[in-house]
Design brief:
By secondary structure, the chain is an alpha+beta fold. It has three helices and ten strands; from the N terminus they run H-E-E-E-E-E-H-E-E-E-E-H-E. 22% of the residues are buried.
Length: 177
């Protein structure tokens, strides 16, 4: 009888641990690859993104078109990829531009920088940023400078949890052509 009770207890504990582990597992998204309309890059999204293009102005007052793909993958996660041309980009240092874009992005979401890492992606200057945005949003941001073009990849998690697995998968799926 003691063996049966012990076995039932071990089984219950094991099932409880498996249930807890399953609850902490990142959601299984339906990742799909998309090529940009101009054929300059490809990226995978968890679901089909919506393309938004609108006119905007640089700090210098020059007009440009901002392009953005976004998708809400789950109730607590949104993914986005934006790109635009800045003819002044080659005239400034890449560190200066990466920092300005980082600061502008943090300002826009009332974000607090947690960490950042400077690196190169396919030979181009890039920066990864982890931040906490207003409303306790976890923010993952990757900025890439390619000639006169700026790319920003964003993942927001409303749960406040930093699910680095899905953010890394999204970031690593980006490739220049």
């Amino acid at each position: 009888m003691k063996l049966k009770t012990l076995s039932a207890g071990i089984l219950a504990a094991t099932l409880g641990l498996l249930w807890i582990a399953d609850c902490r597992r990142p959601p299984a998204y339906d990742w799909q690859s998309f090529a940009s309309p101009d054929g300059k890059f490809a990226i995978s999204f968890p679901g089909k993104p919506i393309l938004d293009e609108h006119p905007a102005k640089l700090a210098t007052g020059e007009s440009y078109t901002s392009h953005r793909w976004t998708t809400k993958a789950a109730d607590d996660a949104a993914f986005g990829c934006s790109w635009w041309e800045d003819p002044n980009l080659p005239n400034r240092s890449s560190d200066e531009m990466l920092n300005k874009i980082r600061d502008f992005g943090l300002y826009g979401v009332q974000g607090r920088l947690i960490s950042e890492r400077r690196f190169t992606l396919q030979g181009y200057p890039a920066k990864d940023i982890e931040a906490r945005a207003r409303g306790n949003l976890a923010m993952h941001n990757r900025i890439i400078l390619v000639g006169t073009r700026v790319y920003t990849l964003l993942v927001f998690e409303t749960s406040g949890k930093r699910n680095i697995t899905n953010a890394e998968r999204f970031f690593k799926s980006f490739s220049l052509h």
